[in-house]
Design a protein that fits this description.
12 strands, Cytochrome Bc1 Complex, Chain D, domain 2, alpha+beta, 39% helix
Length: 282
């Protein structure tokens, strides 16, 4: 019975995709606060694409313009909260992030562009949220934040902003190689009642219109991203979780090894695109 449902779902999904209208990325250039972003570049070695594009290039003009001006970008409200958290003492140590790291503009510059990255102590790659929570627990003596909490999203947005304009560049060799392969396997694995993989939308059908949505290549260079649909910021893992729910699959746990491996692989597919944090999407 489950197999039959899966076949019906796959057939329906295929029909929807086949009927979708082709509408590739636009030719607009992304400039944020006067700084030109790389939203189109040659694909990295081993990519299924010739050229990779930021998700910004697939959005409506009304959404695109919000990201070009920090005063208009709704995600910047969270960044302001992030600055407040950075300077606020917490935990048994009575220390703030600034007490150890100094000015966020200097100490966190470039960090977001290279994440997830290998951590020897953990014996696995860590995402930005992992690093933040470890610092809170070990250096502040406080409880870590939930993955999608306002505090976590504000701080990841603040730290990500310090890499804005820098190219995505994650390590995929050495101890990261096995995790890269694991993420790649997850990317192409068909799951859920619709029997679909990430690649079915973001590789096979990018540029098409489906259910009033313009499918991008699924790049993650803008996270945490403010989505108008969410009316707030959301993490990379929240986006992964949402995609899995849409194909009627049981999502992996945000912060778990599966989504961390998937994050690494998807980040590698966007090598060379500018970090846009906090991006704005529909």
């Amino acid at each position: 019975m489950k197999k039959a449902i899966g076949l019906i779902g796959a057939t329906t999904a295929a029909a929807i995709l086949a009927a979708s209208a082709v509408a590739g990325p636009d030719d607009n250039n992304l400039v944020i606060e006067g700084e030109a972003m790389v939203s189109e570049t040659a694909a990295p070695e081993g990519s299924p694409f010739d050229t990779i594009y930021s998700g910004w290039r697939f959005r409506s003009p009304e959404t695109q313009v919000l990201e070009t001006d920090d005063f208009e970008n709704p995600g910047m409200v969270a960044v302001e909260y992030g600055y407040e958290l950075w300077d606020t003492a917490a935990g048994s140590s009575g220390k703030s992030c600034a007490d150890c790291h100094g000015a966020v503009e200097e100490s966190m510059s470039g960090l977001r562009a290279g994440l997830p990255k290998w951590d020897e102590a953990a014996g696995k790659p860590l995402s930005l949220e992992h690093l933040i929570n470890r610092s809170i627990k070990e250096h502040q003596g406080a409880d870590g934040w939930k993955w999608e909490s306002a505090e976590m999203l504000a701080t990841t947005a603040l730290i990500g902003l310090q890499s804005r304009g820098m190219p995505m560049d994650v390590e995929t060799d050495g101890p990261m190689a096995d995790w890269y392969e694991r993420g790649k396997e997850l990317y192409y694995a068909r799951v859920g009642q619709l029997d679909m993989a990430c690649a079915n939308c973001h590789e096979d059908n990018w540029g098409n219109m489906i259910r009033a949505d313009h499918l991008s290549q699924g790049q993650i260079n803008g996270f945490p991203t403010y989505r108008l649909k969410w009316q707030g910021l959301g993490s990379i893992h929240r986006r992964f979780k949402g995609c899995m729910k849409q194909i009627r699959a049981t999502p992996y746990k945000p912060g778990g090894d599966e989504f961390t491996a998937l994050e690494l692989y998807v980040a590698s597919r966007g090598e060379g695109l500018s970090v846009e944090t906090p991006a704005v999407r529909q």
